[in-house]
Amino acid sequence: MATSTQNNQQMPNAHLHELFVDELKDILGAEKQLLKGLKKLSKAAESDELKQAFDQHYEQTEGHVERLKEVFSSLNMSARGKKCKAMEGLLEEADEIIDSFEGDPALDAALISAAQKVEHYEIASYGCLVTYAKLMEHSEAEQLLQQTLDEEKQTDSLLTDIAISSVNESAS
Fold first, then answer.
1. CATH number of 126's domain
2. What is the rounded radius of gyration, in angstroms, for the C-alpha atoms of the chain?
3. Which of 6, 98, 99, 106, CA to CA, is 20 to 30 A from 143?
4. How many domains does the chain have?
5. Statement: residue 5 has pLDDT above 80
6. What's the mean per-residue pLDDT of the chain?
């Protein structure tokens, strides 16, 4: 343990290292949980455009998991996630939405709302991780995490576009 502490003290802002690793474990767990949730969202969606968006994000999320494994590797650590309570709650809410709005014209609008809550959680998480990586001068981790952050923002924007262009109109 002393070696790890010595190594941590040699990096800039070493006091952030434990938080950084804990947040990495949390978001890895969240991404794995989300894979199951996206399948449910896609299956429940009525709009083909929305189904396609959920399916596309599923593939992206698989890439996010792989990218997080690369981040752990760049830190000479094994990739281990932990159960993310926030994602668990967001996905439980999505399940409730599916049950409550099944057959309702507002279902897809409700699904977008649930999905954007997930995206905003991920955007916040990855934003913090990018900042921590930058402060600790983990440039490879920073670059990988920034790439995922950019994709999460694109997904959020896509969901907004789908809501505005068709889904919200259909729900009203």
1. 1.20.1260.10
2. 18
3. 6
4. 1
5. no
6. 91
